[in-house]
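Course exercise 7: structure representation. Students receive a sequence record and must write out the corresponding structure in token form. The form below is the worked example handed out in class, using Putative N-acetylmannosamine-6-phosphate 2-epimerase (249 residues). Read each field label carefully; the graders check that inputs and outputs are placed in the correct fields and that the protein name is recorded exactly as given.

STUDENT ID: A-19
EXERCISE PROTEIN: Putative N-acetylmannosamine-6-phosphate 2-epimerase
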Amino acid sequence: MAVQYGGVRQAGGIMTNPIVAGLKDGFIVSCQALANEPLFGSDMMAAMAVAAEDGGAAAIRANTPQDIAVIKRRCRVPVIGLYKKHYPDSDVYITPTIREVDDVVRAGADIVAIDSTSMTRPGNERLDRLIAEIRKSFPETPIMADVSTFEEGAAAMRLGVDVVSTTLSGYTPYSPQQPSPDIALVARLAALGRAPVFAEGRIWTIEECLRCFEAGAHAVVVGTAITRPQEIVRRFVTRISMQMQGFEG
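STUDENT ANSWER:
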């Protein structure tokens, strides 16, 4: 049975962390940029986060202690923090070890997101041990499990995480490779009724967002479709080019 930590009871009997409970039916914006992208930098991401908050975002998802700290100073909504770090012996990179968790929590994150896939972790560490260490070191910090499959999500729930997110569906070699959001995964995990489920990954439209809520998502996270303008422009240009070629043909 999953261990529950200091929560409030939600519909369906799930005991939910108060911060997570407060995000029910919320729209969350992921403000991240890669080092080779035009908007990379904490000031840029903080400005994006402020704009998202002004638009009504319920929370911000942010990468790196630097970005988290600046966003926390400028925004009032909760911040879901992560720290992407690559280790030579593992493909796990979203807050992979307790060192990154420590950095994220100390930067002010209200929730910490960790890779909870079945891939080999740095140092061959077990996920259950990492979660136990987080609970011991940071008992007040809710844990978000980023997963790619139903089996991973169910396992994370059994380990007592506060929320499961479909973030990595399509980003592991063994999860469904599809251009659209994995709404089926959202529905299957939500139907378990063991922990809140966040929908994330390849959500481009309001219609897709609403379908995620209809499938049982506690909240929906959108990143690229809002905060990576080069990808937004590329979609327009590609679609226009295809359409014009069709006309010319």
